[in-house]
Amino acid sequence: xxINYFYTFPWYxxxxxxxxxxxxxxxxxxxxxxxxxxxxxxxxxxxxxQITVLYAILLAYNMRFFYKIILTFLSFLAIILxxxxxxxxxxxxxxxFSLLQTLQTNRKYLAPLSFIALWxxxxxxxxLPFASxxxxxxxxxxxxxxSGNIFLTAFTSFASFGDRLAVMWPATTTRFESVNxxxxxxxxxxxxxxxxxxxxxxxxxxxxxxLYLISSFGVIGGILFISIPLNIVRLGYKLMFDRLFIYLSxxxxxxxxxxxxxxxxxxxxxxxxxxxxxFFDDGRDHEDSTYS
Length: 292
What we know:
Layout: H1 2-6, E1 15-18, E2 21-24, E3 30-31, E4 34-35, H2 44-59, H3 65-80, H4 86-103, H5 110-130, H6 137-142, H7 150-156, H8 159-173, H9 179-184, H10 193-198, H11 209-217, H12 219-227, H13 230-235, H14 240-255, H15 267-279
Antiparallel strand pairs: 1-2, 3-4
Helix pairs in contact: 2-3, 2-4, 2-14, 3-4, 4-14, 5-12, 11-12, 14-15
């Protein structure tokens, strides 16, 4: 990413066709006056999620607090170069959970506190799209920064969030017209990529994991989403593996507020692994395990 800041890779903007469908191998787009950098990945949001997952893997290891600060700073800086703001929230929350683990002397409260925090975030992710009509999206557009500095742009541009509030989320929530729609969803393929292929007249990328799952599976989708925080009480913070799954759960829930992470590269695999940890016993005794 840091090389990409000084050098534009030659494959940016490359597109190709599969049948009648035109695809982009490397998206070339901008935030204000700056190109949204994507390094060796297809798009800026892809590389931002890859950096965050790698950050979670490294942070899960026991390391000195000083090294955690350095790791967090470098990851934060690299993501700023992509101008992807939503994933920055995940970095902050994961770091706070790690900090809580480092500072918490009475560890019996660590998992419950983390669970309550992540569960509240998951409820916010669900409620925000359905309450989007009550938020003034024009106000966000007016407050959007126009600075030529890429770092200020990453923190002061709210146009994409305003678009979700005014257009993206209402395009889906207004399609829920009866109790059955909430109970059973709008149907598999009713939103996201499948819709862009077969129902382009009412395209909705959703950009919210909970809304995507509820649209596809109804109440079952919502239950699956809010069950992800249960990984915290199921696993605890004792083993590196357990901490990793807690951090990945945090990333999926928090970043899912502003993205359709279910359709982002390897996130469906992570989602399946996290659900597996919630609903299936892996046979290990987490309470008797030593910290590592």
